[in-house]
C-alpha cells in the first residue's frame, strides 16, 4: 500500500495538481487544519450532552495525516473522472464540496447540501465515497509513515513555492512496477543514506544485516537487536519485512520480525553487480538533481544519461561477444552428439551454458534498468550525436556518409533528449538509403540571429530520386508513405522530435545532388555554446 500511495502522490505532481495556486486551502496544511477546525466548532456548538461526546469520538480519526490522504485521494478521483475544468476557483469549490460530502456521509456535518444535482453532482458523490474508503484504509496502514515527506527526502519530488514538482528519480519510479519499483526505492535509499539511524533511508550496512538476520525478537521498550525500528515500517508495507505482534501471559508485548523471501532477495541484490549498476544510476540521478538545485539549471552533461549510454554500449558489446559463443556451443552439442562427446562432457557443457545465460541476462537486465534514468532533457553535443547516428546506419549504405561541420560546431550543444535526436537523424539517413540514395551527406553550421540568439542548421541530403514538390509537406504526416513497403511513421517521428521536443523546424527541398534535402533548424539555448 505504501508504494501505491507514493505512486499516487507522484502522479498528482506530474499532472500539476499539487499546487497552491490551484488549491490554496487544501494543499496548505495550516489553512486546511484551520478550515476543518472551523467546521468542527460550528457543528459542536449545536450539540449537547451525549451528542457532544459522540461527536468528539467521531473526530478522532480526522487527524492531519488522514486529511492529507483524503485530499490526495479526492484529487486523483476527481481528475480521473474529468470533473476538473482547469479554473482554480471552480476546481477549489468542487474539491470543497467533495470534502463536505464525506463529512456529511459520516454525520460530522448534518445539514448541508454537499453537492449539486445532475450528472456532475452524482459523479462527484461517487468519487467522494470511493476516495473516503481508500483514504481510511490507507490511514490504518500508513499511520506515521509520511508518504509526501518520504518523496521529498528521497528527491522523488520537490516543493517549490507551494508547488510539488516531479523530479527525475520520481519519473523513473513511475515507469516501474512491482518489485522493480521497490528495487529502485532501495537503490535511492542506500545511495543517499545518512547513516544507520537515518529515518527515511536504509543504509547499506542495515541492508546487509537484514539479509543475515531472518528472525529476531525484541520486547516492548527495549532497543531492537537488529536494524529495525518503527520508522522503517514502510519496509513492512513494501512486503520486505513481516512483523507479528504478540502478548505474553503477563500482558507484555513483543514483536517477531522476519525478512520475507522478497526482502532477502532485494536487500541481497544491493551488494551484487546488478545492484551496483542500479545504485550507480541512483547516485547519478541524484547528482543531476543536486546540480540543478544548486545552479538553477540542469547540468551541461547529465551523469544519469551518460551512465545509461555507457552501460547500454557495454551491454551491446557483451551480447555481440556472447551470442556467437552461445550459438557455437549449441552447434557443438548437436555435432558432437553422435560421437558421445556431449554425454562425456555433459557437466562441463552445462556449466559453460549456464554461465553464458547468466552473463547475457545480466547484460540485458543492467542495460534495461539503467535506461530508465537516461530519458530526460539534457545539454548534449550536437556533433557527437550526429556521428553516433552515422555510425548506426553506416553498414547499410554503399558509401561512407559525408560529414561536414563548420568551424565551432564542436562546441555547440542542444537541450533535449539526446537519444531521440539521434533516432530522428538515424531515420533520415535510413530513409535516404531506402529510396536508393548511394551518396548521403550531412552539413552542419550555426547561424546568429541578432539579439534573439543563435540556431543550428543541419542539412541531410542524398542523390536519390528526390521528393516531388506536391509531396514534400505530406511526407511528414503520420501513416503517409509514398515508398513501397514504407510504414509512414519514420518521418512523422522526425518531425515530432525536431518541432515538438526540440522546438525547431524541418522541411524538405530539392538537393543540388538531384535527390532530397531535409533542412533542420534548431534553436541553440543560451548555455548551448561553450
Characterise the protein shown here:
The protein has 530 residues and is an alpha+beta fold. It starts with a helix and ends in a 6-residue tail after the last strand. The chain is globular. The strands form four sheets. It has a five-stranded mixed beta sheet, with helices on one face. A three-stranded antiparallel beta sheet has the order 3-5-4. It is 52% helix and 14% strand. Helix 8 runs antiparallel to helix 9, helix 14 packs antiparallel against helix 16 (346-371) and helix 17 packs across helix 18. The chain folds into four domains: 2-161, no CATH class; 169-269, Arc Repressor Mutant, subunit A; 298-371; 378-524, 2-Layer Sandwich (Heat Shock Protein 90), CATH 3.30.565.10. InterPro entries: 2C_sensor_his_kinase, HATPase_C_sf, HATPase_dom, His_kinase_dom, Sig_transdc_His_kin-like_C. This is histidine kinase.
Amino acid at each position: 500500500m505504501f508504494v501505491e500511495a507514493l505512486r499516487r502522490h507522484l502522479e498528482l505532481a506530474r499532472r500539476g495538481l499539487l499546487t497552491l495556486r490551484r488549491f490554496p486551502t487544501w494543499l496548505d496544511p495550516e489553512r486546511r487544519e484551520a478550515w476543518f477546525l472551523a467546521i468542527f466548532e460550528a457543528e459542536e456548538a449545536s450539540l449537547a450532552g451525549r451528542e457532544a461526546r459522540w461527536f468528539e469520538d467521531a473526530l478522532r480519526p480526522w487527524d492531519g495525516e488522514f486529511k492529507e490522504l483524503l485530499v490526495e485521494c479526492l484529487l486523483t478521483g476527481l481528475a480521473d473522472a474529468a470533473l476538473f475544468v482547469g479554473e482554480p476557483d471552480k476546481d477549489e469549490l468542487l474539491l470543497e464540496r467533495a470534502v463536505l460530502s464525506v463529512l456529511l456521509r459520516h454525520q460530522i456535518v448534518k445539514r448541508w447540501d454537499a453537492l449539486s444535482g445532475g450528472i456532475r453532482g452524482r459523479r462527484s458523490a461517487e468519487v467522494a465515497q470511493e476516495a473516503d474508503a481508500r483514504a481510511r484504509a490507507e490511514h490504518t496502514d500508513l499511520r506515521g509513515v509520511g508518504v509526501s515527506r518520504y518523496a521529498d527526502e528521497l528527491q522523488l519530488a520537490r516543493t517549490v513555492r507551494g508547488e510539488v514538482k516531479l523530479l527525475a528519480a520520481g519519473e523513473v519510479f513511475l515507469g516501474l512496477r512491482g518489485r522493480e519499483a521497490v528495487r529502485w526505492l532501495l537503490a535511492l535509499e542506500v545511495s543517499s543514506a545518512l547513516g544507520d539511524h537515518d529515518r527515511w533511508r536504509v543504509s547499506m550496512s542495515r541492508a546487509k544485516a537484514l539479509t543475515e538476520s531472518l528472525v529476531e525478537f525484541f520486547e516492548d521498550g527495549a532497543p531492537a537487536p537488529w536494524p529495525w525500528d518503527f520508522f522503517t515500517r514502510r519496509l513492512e508495507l513494501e512486503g520486505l519485512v513481516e512483523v507479528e505482534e504478540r502478548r505474553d501471559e503477563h500482558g507484555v508485548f513483543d514483536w517477531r520480525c522476519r525478512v520475507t523471501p522478497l526482502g532477502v532477495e532485494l536487500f541481497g541484490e544491493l551488494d551484487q553487480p546488478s545492484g551496483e549498476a542500479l545504485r550507480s544510476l541512483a547516485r547519478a540521478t541524484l547528482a543531476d538533481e543536486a546540480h540543478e538545485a544548486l545552479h538553477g539549471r540542469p547540468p551541461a552533461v547529465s551523469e544519469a544519461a551518460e551512465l545509461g549510454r555507457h552501460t547500454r554500449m557495454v551491454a551491446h558489446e557483451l551480447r555481440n561477444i556472447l551470442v556467437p559463443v552461445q550459438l557455437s556451443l549449441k552447434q557443438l552439442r548437436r555435432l558432437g552428439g553422435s560421437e558421445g562427446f556431449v554425454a562425456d562432457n555433459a557437466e562441463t557443457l552445462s556449466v559453460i551454458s549456464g554461465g553464458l545465460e547468466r552473463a547475457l541476462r545480466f547484460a540485458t537486465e543492467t542495460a534495461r534498468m539503467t535506461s530508465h534514468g537516461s530519458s530526460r532533457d539534457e545539454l548534449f553535443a550536437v556533433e557527437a550525436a550526429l556521428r553516433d547516428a552515422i555510425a548506426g546506419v553506416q553498414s547499410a549504405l554503399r558509401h561512407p556518409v559525408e560529414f561536414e561541420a563548420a568551424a565551432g560546431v564542436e562546441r555547440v550543444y542542444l537541450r533535449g533528449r539526446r537519444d531521440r535526436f539521434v533516432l530522428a537523424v538515424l531515420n533520415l539517413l535510413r530513409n535516404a538509403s531506402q529510396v536508393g540514395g548511394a551518396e548521403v551527406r550531412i552539413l552542419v553550421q550555426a547561424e546568429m540571429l541578432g539579439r534573439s540568439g543563435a540556431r543550428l542548421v543541419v542539412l541531410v541530403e542524398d542523390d536519390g530520386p528526390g521528393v516531388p514538390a506536391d509531396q514534400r509537406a505530406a511526407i511528414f504526416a503520420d501513416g503517409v508513405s509514398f515508398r513501397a513497403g514504407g510504414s509512414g511513421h519514420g518521418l512523422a517521428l522526425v518531425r515530432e522530435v525536431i518541432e515538438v521536443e526540440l522546438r525547431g523546424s524541418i522541411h524538405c527541398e530539392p538537393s543540388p545532388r538531384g535527390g532530397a534535402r531535409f533542412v533542420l533548424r534548431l534553436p541553440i539555448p543560451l548555455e548551448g555554446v561553450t
